[in-house]
Amino acid sequence: MKSTTLKSAFLAITLLGIIWSSNAQKNYELNKKQTFSVLGTSTLHDWEMETSTATGTANITITNSKLEAINGITINLKSESIKSGKGAMDKIAYKTLNTNKFKTIKYVLKTAEKVNETTWELIGTFSIAGVSKEFKTQVQTTISNGSVTIQGSNKITFDEFGMTPPTALFGTIKTGKELILKFNINFN
């Protein structure tokens, strides 16, 4: 009788362990394989600024190597880490972002809804230049070797974040009003 009870207890613990390991909600850290880009237009040429330095966490549930839930995402990047490769353009961008006062650009997930196995619709808040706005973002996800990759983009305007589209050369070069925020991020 004692042996049967012990076997039953061992079997129950083993089953719980299997269920727990196959349905694991975990915290993940943003790794170094990431890119954040801002794309825009001007009367002179299209332009892009990017950074690969950000910090962030995600709380994700994976079951049998499939993404089942995105419970939380928080990402922070230094405003002045975004570079174009052109010093003068960077200075204009930092002035527009008011980086003396607002050192960080932030994203915080509010909700995540699964569309299909690899597509999710996220609703979250972007905080840029001291203004916070909620946006819906459709993203593509992949899971590989314990890493979760999320790719997507958002169209925003300078006006939505209280910024004036920058100009150069006494107003002869004007920036377009729309921007695209593009990201390819990996969590381990």
Automatic annotation (TrEMBL):
Pfam families: YceI (PF04264)
Domain Lipid/polyisoprenoid-binding YceI-like: 27-188
Signal peptide interval: none
Family matches, as InterPro entries: Lipid/polyisoprenoid-bd_YceI (IPR007372), TTHA0802/YceI-like_sf (IPR036761)
Record SUPFAM superfamilies: YceI-like
Protein name: YceI family protein
Source taxonomy: Bacteria, Pseudomonadati, Bacteroidota, Flavobacteriia, Flavobacteriales
